[in-house]
Amino acid sequence: MTKTVLISGAGVAGLTLAHWLRRHGFTPTVVERAPALRDGGYKVDIRGAAVEVVRRTGILEQVRERRTDVRAGAVVDRSGKRVASMNGDSFGGREEHDAEILRGDLTRLLFETTRDEVDYRFGDAIAALDGTSVTFSSGRTETFDLIVGADGVHSRTRELAFGPESGFVHDMGYRVAICTVPNHLGLDREELTYVSPGRTTLVYSTAGQTTAKAMFLFTEPAGIDESDPRRALREAYAGQGWEVPRLLEAVADAPDFYYDRLAQVRMDRWSAGPVALLGDAAYCASPASGQGTSLGLVGGYLLAGELAAAGGDHETAFAAYEARMRPFAERNQKLGPANVKRMVLSSSGQVRMSMVMLGVMSRLPGRDRMMAAMMAPLHKAANAIEIPDYATRSQHP
Ligand SMILES: Cc1cc2nc3c(=O)[nH]c(=O)nc-3n(C[C@H](O)[C@H](O)[C@H](O)COP(=O)(O)OP(=O)(O)OC[C@H]3O[C@@H](n4cnc5c(N)ncnc54)[C@H](O)[C@@H]3O)c2cc1C
């Protein structure tokens, strides 16, 4: 009977798996490369089926207490004039039960449910895999019954067990950068978006934060050397209007600068022998899908549940996890390319037309209903899975 499970990565997916494995009577160990759990971060959405997972995990109330409470979203023009404004939930594509929260707040809540029950090892990582024998960067070697890679889009576990990421990580042709900036616009739980050809810039403030976040979403910067991401961002956004120059200045000092290709992970199989993949490592849908967090939550719950249902027989469990999860993951992955095309417009004609349409729409009485209709594919995809009840050994880990 499988008992010990090594999980690589204390992100949303890995922490959800750890929680549910404990409740099913397994003994998970979590190894996380970062020296400590990271707080804060960007805002993420919990939608549809994932809300039910959060409820069963016992943290729904706390998630709601820590919601970002972004009350309004607006598109601005070059001079900063609000061209279109909407309420925050319509703007962010959230339905009544969905919740938006900072990624770090969610991981903190998940972590707290198991911090005394699970062996968490921060500042370490898997260096080598030989069957079920794991050598860590710290030098120690140990054996586990199973190993789960929940270590994100650039998963090291995937590389060790399945091969180089070039075979699985598909570049969508865009870049994303995000960091904390001073809230010099004095935003109070508001999100502003400025769109120019191939370059979209967002700034938002969330409840309880004195700083703001700036996010840059843009087409692959042809001819720009990306070895220094801050410089690459500066060059890609040179000559942009609105508050962009001021935001770029702030980027230079940001302590938490993140820059990556927008990418999706596609694999024929999510397991190989005793190793399985979960979350972005297996089926990253990209930040543009708005569903990565929900996929991590649902996947973690299902993988633990199927291991319990199969009495620890990992071959049966991995096959059942993949059979349930794959159609859901693939449906949500389809949202990514469509969304990014709506968010990053390719020509000035497209930008002008979109501004006019948004301006008209935001003044119509039925604007929230129209926005909801536009978001229908997202909500359908977010709900396109049933969350089974798996018998647990304990109510709480
Ligand atoms: C800029 C940005 C904006 C986003 N916006 C949204 C959004 O609005 N809505 C939404 O739903 N999702 C959003 N996402 C996506 C979402 O954050 C991810 O899809 C989700 O967090 C996936 O969770 P995960 O646990 O699979 O991976 P991750 O969150 O990437 O966690 C992986 C963990 O593994 C650790 N790790 C990495 N390598 C190793 C290693 N070798 N050994 C040990 N540990 C390792 C990492 O430090 C990290 O803690 C966004 C992502 C980004 C980058």
Automatic annotation (TrEMBL):
<dbReference type="InterPro" id="IPR051704">
    <property type="entry name" value="FAD_aromatic-hydroxylase"/>
</dbReference>
<dbReference type="Pfam" id="PF01494">
    <property type="entry name" value="FAD_binding_3"/>
</dbReference>
<protein>
    <submittedName>
        <fullName>2-polyprenyl-6-methoxyphenol hydroxylase-like FAD-dependent oxidoreductase</fullName>
    </submittedName>
</protein>
<feature type="domain" description="FAD-binding">
    <location>
        <begin position="4"/>
        <end position="332"/>
    </location>
</feature>
<dbReference type="InterPro" id="IPR036188">
    <property type="entry name" value="FAD/NAD-bd_sf"/>
</dbReference>
<dbReference type="GO" id="GO:0071949">
    <property type="term" value="F:FAD binding"/>
</dbReference>
<dbReference type="InterPro" id="IPR002938">
    <property type="entry name" value="FAD-bd"/>
</dbReference>
